[in-house]
Amino acid sequence: MVFIGGAGNMAGAVIGGMVASGYPADKIVATGRDKEKLKAFCDRTGVHGSTDNLAAIEHADVVVLSVKPQVMKELCESIAEKVSARKPLVITLAAGIPLAAYQRWLGAGVPIIRAMPNTPALVGTGVTGLYAGDGVTDEQKSVATQMADAVGIALWVEQESGIDQVIAVSGSGPAYYFQFMESMIDAAEKAGMDRADAERLTLQTALGAAKLAVAADVDVAQLKRNVMSPNGTTERAVKRFQEGGLPELVAQAMGDCAARAAEMAKELDK
Ligand SMILES: NC(=O)C1=CN([C@@H]2O[C@H](COP(=O)(O)OP(=O)(O)OC[C@H]3O[C@@H](n4cnc5c(N)ncnc54)[C@H](OP(=O)(O)O)[C@@H]3O)[C@@H](O)[C@H]2O)C=CC1
Ligand SMILES: O=C(O)[C@@H]1CCC=N1
Q: Which residues have CB under 8 Å from 159's CB, separation 6+?
């Protein structure tokens, strides 16, 4: 399996998670342009590295594309001849680029899967949304499912637009939680708590809440009520969130996120 842009944030997290879960590191090649960054990544994970995309994909059955959306067209055009001749399975991790664009850039008939992972893949707790284009076999779909399963959970979507919904929930989602944690840490520090203590307590609380929510047989609304004693401290805090419009703000932010994915598609599908 070859990851183009393999030492980057997203592919690096997927590769790190795959290797940690037992996928053989010597079956993975990561490519990049920055030799030092690539070497450090390969030393850390045990995967092979290459600064030559064409040489790296020469015999590959699966090519994962993980460069920034803005440079994806240029990258695809640079590998198109080789890819359209051999037709390996191409899995793209990029946000905001429709399958139709890859078909134009890489040539018709190349099997393409859009995958939308998230960075918690690195710790085996990722979410990957998946969408398969025409001509992708069940065996190829199962390769993508295996990659996703190795680093967390997978969800296949029926429509390509489902990928934009996945971006709004889980692709970008970790940043929403990091933002919330950052705000809690800042507020606790401002209120007089040592920053390191504030960080420790905030992160453990986030971890505990997420673990409890996953393990519980009641929904998150009930778990929230379980923390709220009538006329107690939590009720006061939650009332402030609700009066301040947090639910609407979250919905707006997620809407903005999905809208940006659609906007990127218009900018980049050329
Ligand atoms: N970050 C995230 O949370 C998520 C990102 N994504 C998607 O993943 C993709 C990558 O994003 P992210 O990892 O954040 O970005 P990064 O910039 O961290 O990684 C991109 C990598 O691509 C490499 N690269 C650029 N051009 C080339 C090239 N021509 N040949 C080989 N390697 C190249 C860069 O390495 P070098 O500097 O060595 O060239 C860099 O390491 C994007 O398309 C994004 O939409 C999807 C889901 C979540
Ligand atoms: O912010 C971005 O565009 C990428 C896609 C999802 C997460 N990061």
A: 131
CB of 163 closer than 6 angstroms to any ligand 2 atom: no
Instruction: Give the global pTM.
Output: 0.95
Q: State ipTM.
A: 0.98
Select from 135, 114, 116 the least CA-distant residue to 126.
116
Atom from ligand 2 closest to the CA of residue 95: 5
Rounded distance from Cα 253 to ligand 1 centre (Å): 23
Provide the token pair at 185: 């840490």
CATH 1.10.3730.10 domain extents, the chain? 173-262
- Chain length of the chain: 270
Ligand 1 atom nearest to CA at 34: 38
Outline which parts of the chain fall under CATH 3.40.50.720.
2-159
pLDDT tens for 116-150 read 999 999 999 999 999 998 899 999 999 999 999 99
pLDDT for residue 63: 98
Fold of 2-159: Rossmann fold (3.40.50)
**Could you tell me if the CB of 10 is within 6 A of ligand 1?**
yes
Domain 173-262 bears CATH identifier 1.10.3730.10? yes
Q: Does the beta carbon of 257 sit less than 6 angstroms from any atom of ligand 1?
A: no
Q: Please, which residues have CB within 8 angstroms of residue 218's CB and are 6 or more apart in sequence?
A: none
